[in-house]
Backbone:
């Protein structure tokens, strides 16, 4: 296991390095320098040249890349020329709220989707299964922002149960103080995730139910309830572990739309704005986060799978 | 009063287009300590009968009113579900076919065996585990106490089936239903498991219902047999009487169509024509009438019903008297002697080696390899058939795939008609593939479900760029006729055909390019007995008319002996014996061949009963680390020290008969090692 972890972490570092390199190159091809952002659209070529020189943007790209990597190793994610703030400060400011949204919706969607999928598999083609399938199809095919807009219209504007605007307080404690306003964005994120997870969980449950060992369990005299709790749930949840691990970074991407819709000043919004303004270091940091999440999500999924499936050994 | 009394048991399964009468009015009884065989082909309702007794029906299935199942006088059919659960696994237990999928992969075997004990006897976890260890010991799992924490994937197929049996026996049931308990196992393991079931039945005083398609299995292990056809029992009597004095034409045909080891393979196999009826719309009258050569008008209108004296009942208006006289009803196939045409061999395989790496990772560690084929040589003459037999994992399929070039050997050569297959590349290789074709085991998986039969058959011609569309079409139509399918089949999809018909399509596909050699990998093992005989006859007929040579791979020695001129026996990647069918069957020199022959259940009750307890012990060693010297020595009754130290060389035992053994059962002709086995008829 230890050897496996070391090898996996080594590959993980290589993967993350590769992603940083590719993103860095692409950004440099699209916009070689942030000078215009800083100096304004009417800046003179001479001024741009001078600024580039002063900030090292006239050096060859590998030089610039080396500098960036060097800073990265010291924990310095660079400076946002757009927002005139260090990226680290921006992230510390915005990450807690986005993280809260992501984790809350992830936990919630697992809690809903796994039992729901198992139920659907067991009660295949029943009224409940068909209803759940139809709803899942609707939420799966609907863009997240549309789900969000519908939620706003129904629960905030028509029923007036919650505020259409979420708290603008960036700190975790501030946001939690106004927690009822966070319900809608979390629900919007959860609905989409539940829609896809429950479909997978349903088909995984159907696969397991078709296995001979379920028939064997019944032939032992176990009640249906015991057959499900002892022999179905664990086996049917195994494929979900990998799926959920892989979807960690997707949740961040889903955040983007929801944050935009609910006007939450989180990572998603930061990313959209930086994309529009060629905000180098913020974009780099965002890609880095996604890459790390992908790798970490995968690793966690593999470890969880080893712990729950005796057939898999990490060597 | 009988222990189990079944009366008028009928099970219908609702499907979207109606209902399938899977079991229809089945009645029988079972005494304590007795073994009742339930035999029939797939779809005849034998498994469904077993499941119906347990009331474990598939979705949509239900017992029809009037059905009665009495266990020690207690009616089970109308018991509430909660009471029925106390019967399952406690008084009636069941062993299923596939040991690979019948155990929960995430639970330890100790837990799985102790589960029914906790459930039915209210035992504590520790008590139940003790009991589990006890039963696991009873079924012959070595060191059961230490292995309680093992997971199913850590055990071989044979051991898993032992665990399954332990699970069923944990609560000492009165009735054990064994549903094809050995079908998924190799013959040597099958013999061990059947002996085990029989011993346990006697020791525990249970009654057993043995559900199987294999007449050989029931011949040796059942006291009485019910033959089922299309959801009904057609004949029921004592085992000996059924085999020697059957009355129903179906029983007669079923037994006659099984290829025997002693069979003269120049004669056609007896076949039962046609297919079993569709049970969602069964015919009126006798359900076998459409396939029966004795059928008359009354058979088609009136149901004969199970009649006759209590000890021998049968459902037939025009019963037969005993088995068919096979010698008079068969005709000699016109097949020229293979060696007469060409002296030189068509195909030569020399010292072929194939190793698959296992484990391994990004950094290239764990360099363990599976030694699938370790230096095998054989040769095949023009028009000859070479049979390859051996247990699963012996490398016979890998060898077949290397011969047709689907797998690249690590060492050694395949030479076809003088050309080395291994050195061919690109166009030459593609051209060469015309001469070597393959026929696969699974008729369901080997045809693309989304292609029409016409496209499937024409595809090889298109790839090779042979002929115009018109010519291709006429060739394909001719081929379909040859394999006995109508022209209309061209426009249909594979799922519209039965297993036997699909295997005919597979054969036609292999024939489209006029190959010289067809490698047939288990060509009939997925088929029912009556269909199997039809396909075997077809293969023989086409061999004569197309000048084909076959390499037939099978675990079934009788099938191989019927088709092949010469047979090679493989064990763990090595060829251990090569000889003619008669050499192998009557004069086996290698102890493994003899053990294999011993383990095969034959449909002759007296012979089978004598064999109890014989056969090869133990299981196949891992091909990752094969035993030193002779690979069979770990299971060989004759093994001595020399076997571990020195690998035996092939020695000659007669014309074309070679075997690799230090202590053979026959005296070798000479002690000089021979290298390649030569085709029959050629001077050695």
Residues:
């Amino acid at each position: 296991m230890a050897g496996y972890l070391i090898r996996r972490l080594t590959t993980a570092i290589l993967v993350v390095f590769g992603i940083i390199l590719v993103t860095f190159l692409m950004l440099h091809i699209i916009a070689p320098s942030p000078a215009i952002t800083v100096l304004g659209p009417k800046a003179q070529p001479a001024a741009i040249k001078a600024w580039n020189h002063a900030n090292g943007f006239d050096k060859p790209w590998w030089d610039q890349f080396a500098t960036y990597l060097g800073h990265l190793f010291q924990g310095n994610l660079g400076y946002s020329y757009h927002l005139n703030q260090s990226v680290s400060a921006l992230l510390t400011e915005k990450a807690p709220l986005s993280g809260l949204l992501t984790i809350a919706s992830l936990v919630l969607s697992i809690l809903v989707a796994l039992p729901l999928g198992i139920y659907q598999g067991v009660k295949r083609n029943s009224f409940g299964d068909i209803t759940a399938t139809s709803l899942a199809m609707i939420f799966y095919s609907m863009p997240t922002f549309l789900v969000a807009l519908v939620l706003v219209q129904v629960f905030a504007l028509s029923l007036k149960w919650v505020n259409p605007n979420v708290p603008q307080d960036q700190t975790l404690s501030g946001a939690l103080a106004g927690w009822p306003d966070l319900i809608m964005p979390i629900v919007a994120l959860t609905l989409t995730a539940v829609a896809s997870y429950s479909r997978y969980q349903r088909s995984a449950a159907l696969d397991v139910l078709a296995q001979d060992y379920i028939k064997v369990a019944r032939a032992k005299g176990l009640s249906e309830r015991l057959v499900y709790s002892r022999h179905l749930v664990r086996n049917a949840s195994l494929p979900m572990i990998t799926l959920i691990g892989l979807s960690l970074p997707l949740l961040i991407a889903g955040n983007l739309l929801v944050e935009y819709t609910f006007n939450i000043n989180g990572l998603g919004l930061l990313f959209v704005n930086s994309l529009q303004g060629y905000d180098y270091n913020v974009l780099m940091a965002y890609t880095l986060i996604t890459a790390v999440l992908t790798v970490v999500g995968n690793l966690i999924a593999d470890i969880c799978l080893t712990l729950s499936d005796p057939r898999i050994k990490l060597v | 009063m009988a222990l189990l009394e079944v009366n008028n048991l009928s099970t219908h399964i609702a499907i979207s287009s109606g209902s399938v009468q899977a079991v229809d009015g089945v009645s029988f009884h079972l005494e304590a300590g007795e073994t009742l065989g339930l035999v029939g082909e797939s779809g005849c309702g034998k498994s469904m009968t077993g499941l119906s007794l347990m009331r474990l029906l598939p979705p949509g299935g239900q017992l029809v009113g009037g059905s009665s199942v009495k266990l020690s006088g207690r009616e089970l059919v109308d018991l509430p579900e909660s009471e029925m659960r106390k019967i399952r696994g406690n008084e009636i237990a069941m062993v299923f076919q596939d040991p690979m999928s019948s155990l929960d992969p995430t639970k330890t075997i100790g837990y799985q065996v102790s589960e029914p004990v906790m459930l039915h006897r209210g035992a504590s976890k520790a008590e139940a585990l003790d009991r589990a260890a006890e039963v696991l010991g009873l079924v012959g799992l070595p060191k059961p106490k230490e292995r309680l924490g093992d997971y199913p994937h850590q055990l071989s197929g044979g051991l898993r089936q032992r665990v399954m049996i332990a699970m069923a026996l944990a609560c000492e049931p009165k009735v054990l239903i064994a549903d094809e308990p050995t079908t998924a196992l190799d013959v040597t393991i099958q013999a061990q498991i059947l002996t085990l079931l029989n011993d346990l039945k006697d020791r525990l005083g249970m009654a057993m219902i043995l559900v199987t398609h294999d007449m050989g299995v029931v011949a040796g292990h059942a006291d009485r047999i019910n033959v089922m056809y299309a959801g009904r029992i057609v004949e029921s009597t004592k085992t000996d009487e059924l085999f020697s004095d059957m009355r129903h034409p179906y029983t007669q045909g079923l037994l006659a169509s099984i290829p025997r080891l002693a069979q003269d393979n120049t004669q056609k196999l007896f076949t039962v024509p046609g297919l079993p009826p569709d049970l969602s719309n069964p015919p009126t009258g006798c359900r076998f009438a459409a396939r029966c050569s004795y059928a008359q008008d009354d058979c088609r209108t009136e149901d004969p019903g199970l009649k006759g004296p209590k000890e021998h009942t049968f459902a037939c208006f025009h019963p037969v008297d005993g088995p068919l006289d096979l010698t008079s009803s068969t005709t000699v196939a016109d097949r020229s002697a293979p060696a007469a045409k060409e002296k030189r061999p068509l195909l030569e395989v020399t010292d072929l080696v194939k190793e698959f790496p296992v484990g391994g990772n990004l950094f290239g560690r764990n360099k363990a390899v599976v030694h699938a084929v370790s230096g095998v040589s054989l040769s095949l003459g023009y028009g000859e058939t070479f049979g390859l037999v051996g247990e699963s994992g012996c490398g016979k399929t890998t060898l077949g795939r290397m011969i047709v070039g689907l797998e690249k050997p690590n060492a050694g050569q395949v030479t076809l008609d003088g050309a080395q297959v291994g050195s061919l590349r690109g166009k030459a290789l593609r051209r060469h593939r015309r001469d070597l074709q393959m026929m696969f085991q699974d008729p369901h998986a080997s045809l693309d479900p989304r292609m029409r039969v016409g496209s499937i058959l024409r595809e090889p011609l298109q790839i090779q760029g042979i002929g115009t569309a018109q010519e291709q079409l006429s060739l394909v139509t001719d081929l379909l006729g040859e394999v006995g399918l109508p022209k209309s089949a061209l426009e249909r999809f594979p799922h519209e055909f039965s297993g036997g018909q699909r295997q005919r399509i597979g054969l036609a596909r292999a024939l489209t390019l006029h190959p010289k050699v067809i490698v047939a990998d288990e060509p009939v093992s997925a088929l029912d007995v009556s269909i199997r005989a039809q396909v075997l006859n077809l293969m023989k007929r086409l061999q004569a008319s197309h000048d084909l040579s076959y390499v037939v791979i099978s675990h079934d020695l009788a099938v191989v002996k019927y088709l092949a001129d010469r047979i090679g026996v493989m064990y763990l990647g090595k060829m251990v014996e090569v000889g003619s069918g008669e050499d192998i069957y009557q004069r086996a020199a290698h102890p493994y061949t003899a053990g294999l022959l011993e383990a095969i259940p034959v449909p002759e009750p007296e012979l089978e009963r004598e064999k109890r307890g014989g056969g090869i012990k133990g299981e196949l060693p891992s091909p990752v680390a094969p035993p030193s010297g002779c690979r069979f020595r770990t299971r060989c009754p004759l093994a001595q020290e020399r076997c571990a130290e020195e690998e035996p060389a092939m020695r000659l035992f007669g014309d074309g008969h070679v075997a690799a053994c230090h202590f053979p059962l026959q005296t070798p002709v000479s002690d000089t090692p021979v290298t390649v086995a030569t085709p029959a008829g050629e001077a050695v």
Chain B touches chain A through 35 residues (CB under 8 Å).
